[in-house]
Every structure is written in C-alpha cells, then in structure tokens.
Design goal:
The protein has about 120 residues and is mainly alpha-helical. It contains three helices and no strands. Helix content is about 95%, strand content about 0%.
C-alpha cells in the first residue's frame, strides 16, 4: 500500500510537471505569434517602402526622358553628339577590322603549319 501511494504521488507530481511545462510552451507560442495590429503595422511599413521605391523609380524615369528630350531639342548640342557618335562608330569599326585581320593571320599560320606537317609526314 505504501509503494502504491508513493507511485501514485510520483505520478501526480510528474503529471503536474508535464501540465506546467505544456502551459509554458503554449504561452511561449502565443507570445511568438504576431498580433493583428503588429501584422498590419508591418504591412503598412512594407507598403510605404514600396510606394517610396516606386516614386523614386518614376522620378528617375521622368528625369531621364526630360534629359533625352532636351538633348534632342538642343540645336547646339545635336552636332556635338552626332560627331561623338560618329567617332565611336569609327573606333568600333577599326577594332572589328583589327580583330578580323588577326583572325585571318592566325588561320593562315594554322594552314601553313598543317601544310608543313603534311610535307614532313608525306616525305
């Protein structure tokens, strides 16, 4: 009877300990969950950031278009930009011609090398 009373008392202590631990975990989980107000506040802050970003992008786009319009309508600037563009095209074309000649030169060297190898093995 004494053993049964001790084991029952022990079970009751363990059950109470388990209940207390479970209550602790439930309170901890409840504390971690966002409240509706917190969630709304986060959403408002995110919306504000997105609005500001969109406005910055819009302002940058408008400024870019105004710059393009100004350049196109500025009679003094147009010949300068055309000349600059022409020079850039000439420089790029010169680079392309140089690269093409290097490629042709390497192909010719390669052909000569194969021809020399063919003479050596054919002899």
């Amino acid at each position: 009877a004494v053993v049964s009373t001790q084991s029952t008392g022990r079970r009751e202590k363990l059950r109470a300990l388990l209940d207390a631990e479970e209550d602790h975990y439930i309170h901890e989980i409840d504390a971690q969950q966002e409240t509706t107000l917190e969630r709304q506040a986060k959403m408002r802050a995110r919306a504000k950031v997105l609005r500001e970003k969109r406005e910055q992008e819009r302002v940058a786009y408008v400024q870019e278009k105004l710059d393009i319009r100004w350049r196109e309508e500025c009679d003094e600037l147009r010949p300068i930009l055309a000349s600059k563009h022409q020079n850039e095209v000439f420089e790029e074309r010169a680079k392309q011609i140089e690269i093409s000649s290097i490629i042709k030169e390497r192909e010719k060297e390669e052909e000569n090398m194969y021809a020399a190898c063919g003479r050596v093995t054919g002899s």
